[in-house]
């Protein structure tokens, strides 16, 4: 803006005191300022009132309700691939860890861990039941899908009888057991003998 036009708008010069080439610019600036004055006199902009009312409404809602609303509102979460894969690997490892039955180990007890397995590629599920878990079938895992099902059991020293249960109904004797015992129903239970750690040679 020309200095003389600014002085005119500030009331230091009259329109007649301006050079002819500045009078048009001064008139245009005067019209623009009149527009602004009229808008201000008519009140706040139309968008301002709803925004103020919304802010007042939010402030009047209790903090706990705002927290619940924030938690329930759907959001898009972006996850970098590397941390996502790392989290999935940890989760898969936790799921793939062998099931443990019997008493949990604690310092000073005689708990022994035994790995049992059965080759059953055609089975859709394999469980193990025996004296060590009150004959309640415990699901085995086939972690790599090669048809070899296994479980790691935590048992106290003693002699236990057990069998595998295929597909929830077919009872199968462990072919790798060192000993067997008749179950009284025409089948043979596998026998697992666990010695205390100190007694092994």
Mean pLDDT: 76
CATH topology of the largest domain: Immunoglobulin-like
Any guess at the CATH architecture of the largest domain?
Answer: Sandwich
Structural class by sheet pairing and helices: alpha+beta
The biggest beta sheet is recorded as: 6 strands, antiparallel
| Elements, N to C (H/E) | HHHHHEEEEEEEE
Mind telling me the CATH class of the largest domain? Mainly Beta
How many beta-strand runs?
8
Sequence stretches where pLDDT stays below 50 over 5 or more residues = 98-108
Q: How many domains, as an integer?
A: 2
Shape descriptor: rod-shaped
Strand content: 15-25%
Brief description of this entry?
The chain has five helices and eight strands; from the N terminus they run αααααββββββββ. It is an alpha+beta fold and 201 residues long. A hairpin with a 7-residue loop joins β2 and β3.
Please give a handful of descriptors for the protein shown.
2 domains, rod-shaped, Immunoglobulin-like, 8 strands, two-stranded antiparallel ribbon, 201 residues, alpha+beta
Structural topology:
Elements: H1 3-9, H2 20-42, H3 48-60, H4 63-72, H5 81-96, E1 112-119, E2 126-130, E3 138-139, E4 148-155, E5 158-166, E6 170-172, E7 179-182, E8 188-194
Antiparallel strand pairs: 1-4, 2-3, 2-5, 5-6, 5-8, 7-8
Helix pairs in contact: 1-2
């Amino acid at each position: 803006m020309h200095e003389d036009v600014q002085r005119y708008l500030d009331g230091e010069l009259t329109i007649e005191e301006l050079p002819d080439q500045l009078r048009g610019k001064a008139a245009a600036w005067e019209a623009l300022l009149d527009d602004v004055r009229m808008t201000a006199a008519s009140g706040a902009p139309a968008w301002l009132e709803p925004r103020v009312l919304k802010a007042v409404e939010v402030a009047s809602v209790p903090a706990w309700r705002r927290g619940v609303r924030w938690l329930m509102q759907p959001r898009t979460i972006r996850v970098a691939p590397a941390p996502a894969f790392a989290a999935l690997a940890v989760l898969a490892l936790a799921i793939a860890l062998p099931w443990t039955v019997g008493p949990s180990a604690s310092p000073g007890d005689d708990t022994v861990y035994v790995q049992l397995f059965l080759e059953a590629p055609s089975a859709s599920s394999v469980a193990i039941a025996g004296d060590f878990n009150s004959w309640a079938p415990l699901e085995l895992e086939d972690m790599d899908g090669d048809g070899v099902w296994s479980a790691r059991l935590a048992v106290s020293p003693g002699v236990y009888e057990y069998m595998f249960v295929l597909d929830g109904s077919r009872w199968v004797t462990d072919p790798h057991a060192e000993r067997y015992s008749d179950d009284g129903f025409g089948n043979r239970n596998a026998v697992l003998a666990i010695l205390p750690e100190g007694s092994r040679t």
